Amino acid sequence: MFGLEGEIFGLLDNGVLAICALLGIDLDQRLGRSGVHGALFGGLIGNTLSDGIGAVADPALRDHVLGITAGCLEVFVAVWIGVRIWQAFKTA
User: Fold this and answer.
1) Which structural domain, as residue segments, surrounds residue 86?
2) Domain count, the chain
């Protein structure tokens, strides 16, 4: 009841997410931008990867890998569309 079930998932999830967000910031800044979009999309990609990896590695979640990953990708697409719409309104 108060065990550490899901600990493997948590470690992998936040570790991969943090690394991808930092890489996204760095890439965005190297392209001459502020790093905000890099952090956002790096974090979303990192979250998708880390949730999938964490679910595969954690026996408690292994049966749910496909659904977890699909949910992450759906949010990534929704945010990408939202950013595009936001940018279109800002430049109109």
Assistant:
1) 7-91
2) 1
